[in-house]
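Dear support,

Our group has been running a series of protein-ligand predictions, and this particular one with adenosine-5'-diphosphate is the one our PI (initials K.S.) wants archived with full inputs and outputs. We had some confusion internally about which version of the output was final, so please treat the block below as the authoritative record. The input we submitted was:
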Amino acid sequence: MPDRPTTPQRVAVIGGGVNDEHDVSLASAAAVTRAVRALGAEAVPLTIDRDGSWRTTDGAPLTPSDVVALLTSCDVAFAALHGVNGEDGAVAGFLSMIGLPLAGSPVRAGALGIDKWVTKTLAEAIGIPTTPAVLVPAGAAVGPAPFVPPFVVKPTTAGSSNGVSVVRSPDGYPTAIDHARAAGGDTLVEAFVTGREVDVAVFRHHDGTLRTGAALEIGVADGELFDRAQKYDGTARFTVPAVLDDEELDALVRAAHTLYDTLGCSGVARFDFFLTTDGIVLNEVNTSPGFTEQSQVPRMFAAVGLPYVELVEALIAATPSLGAGSGR
Ligand SMILES: Nc1ncnc2c1ncn2[C@@H]1O[C@H](COP(=O)(O)OP(=O)(O)O)[C@@H](O)[C@H]1O
Ligand SMILES: [Mg+2]
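Confirmed final output from the archive:
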């Protein structure tokens, strides 16, 4: 096993972002900052405001050249950015161009994983089932409903359940498309999946092996969605570890590992599945998942003996190009 890398001295922690998950990202970044400090390293917390401008998290505005100077004074970055203009490869591209290692996925994985349509196409190509879907590009005329209700309409690149709705009668279809389009870009219309929602989190350790958190089941009432309110008002019911038989767990973990490698992920990624009577169905992939202490991924790793601060330490240590990473 490669030597355990020492925690770098200066860690840039980036939060905020120009998208509908800005506030969630601020909470993730604050938690990562606390963990970096608990590890005895210097945290350099940076916030991207909603208008795209950068500042130090405690308030000082930064010009683009200030940002580059500050980032390049650090040894590694942890970008707790969720959604477009961040998780989608944007921050990975920026950091790689200025030579700062990122404890997270590179451009390609972020760009593929952010787009639910692309992710589905890839998953199907490697034999991981997804639910039937039709893409309605932004601006395209909306034809008749492609599925018999109930079905789901959602933006391809939003998060936090923004713009996601269940269409329960054909006349609800145009409203659902408007709702999805208001949250951004292209729209995906999907057959409704009836099943349990079970998520699996994976990261590649600095020793090159994949580490998997305990599977987590989200308690969602039949026919309903895991909506934004439940995600952030504390009413979400998580079961960690999810109660699964060996065959179910094995199928989920194998699919998550295959997806992690197919997308070319680094750092931690979360793979969200439905468990149906016909087997597993991939819902979506998050290459920069929610990362407060109470978020799913930290709870999944805490359940296998890796508490929050140690998880942050392990993710930083696994950063490719820090010396002992997997070098993907
Ligand atoms: N095809 C589907 N069938 C049933 N429920 C769905 C489907 N797609 C999404 N959902 C529900 O909506 C929630 C949010 O959708 P998701 O695709 O995960 O978007 P987000 O990126 O906003 O989390 C899911 O957690 C699930 O509860
Ligand atoms: Mg989701």
